[in-house]
Amino acid sequence: MALLKILEYPDLRLKDMAVPVARVDRETLRLADDMAETMYDAPGIGLAAPQVAAGQRLVVVDVSDARNELLTLINPEIIVRSGEEEMKEGCLSVPGVLETVRRAEKVTVRALGLDGRPLEIEADGLLAVCLQHEIDHLNGTLFVDHLSRLRQNVIRRKAEKRLRHHG
Ligand code: NI
C-alpha cells in the first residue's frame, strides 16, 4: 500500500469528469487500497479517485467512529434522493475550509463492490452527505461549488494565497 498525494483546490484536475471503471481488476484493487490508506492517514471520512489524480469512478468512505466500516464503491450512482438537510462539510482537497451545504437527507446509491458485484446502499445522516459529496467529486464538483459565488471567491482567493506561500 502507498500514500497518495491529494490534489488541492483550485487544481483544475478536480474539475474533470471521472470515467467509469470498465473492469474491476488488480489495478482497481490496488488503487482502492491506496485510497483507503490515504483517507485514514489524512484523516478523512471519504476520498474520491479524482482527488488523487486517478480519473476513475471510485470512492472510499468510512464515517464510523471506530474507523472500521470501510465502504469502497465503484461506479457509484445516486438512484433515489429525498428530503433536504444542511450540514457543515469539509474536504481533504480544500484544507481549512468548513461550510454549510444543503443536500438530500436520504439517498439510495447503486454501485459495484470490490468483488465486482452490484450493491445498493440506503443512507441518511452523515453517510448520505458523505456519499453525495464523494459522488460529486466524480463529476468534477466540489462542495464549494454549492456555495454562493461570493463565498466561492473568498475561498478561492484564500486557497491561492496559501498555495503561493507553501508551493
Ligand atoms: Ni471532498
Keywords for this structure?
about 170 residues, alpha+beta, Peptide Deformylase, 5-stranded antiparallel beta sheet, two-stranded antiparallel sheet, 3 helices, 7 strands, binds nickel (II) ion
Would you write up a description of this structure?
29% of the residues lie in helices and 26% in strands. With 167 residues, it is α+β, with helices and mostly antiparallel strands. It has a single domain (12-166), classed as Peptide Deformylase (Alpha-Beta Complex). It is globular. Bound molecules: nickel (II) ion. Nickel (II) ion (NI) is lined by residues 91-93, 133, 137. Nickel (II) ion is lined by residues 91-93, 133, 137.
Task: Outline the secondary-structure elements.
Elements: H1 26-41, E1 46-48, E2 58-61, E3 71-82, E4 85-89, E5 99-103, E6 106-112, E7 118-124, H2 125-138, H3 149-166
Antiparallel strand pairs: 1-2, 2-3, 3-6, 4-5, 6-7
The protein binds nickel (II) ion.
Nickel (II) ion binds at residues 91-93, 133, 137.
Mean pLDDT rating: 96
The percent range for strand residues is 25-35%
Hetero groups bound?
A: nickel (II) ion
CATH topology: Peptide Deformylase
Please give the count of helices: 3
Shape: globular
Task: Tell me the distance between the termini.
Answer: 26 Å
CATH architecture: Alpha-Beta Complex
Sheet with most strands: 5 strands, antiparallel
Q: Provide the spatial order of strands within the biggest beta sheet.
A: 1-2-3-6-7
Q: Briefly, what CATH class?
A: Alpha Beta
Rounded to the nearest angstrom, the radius of gyration is 15 Å
Helix-strand makeup class: alpha+beta
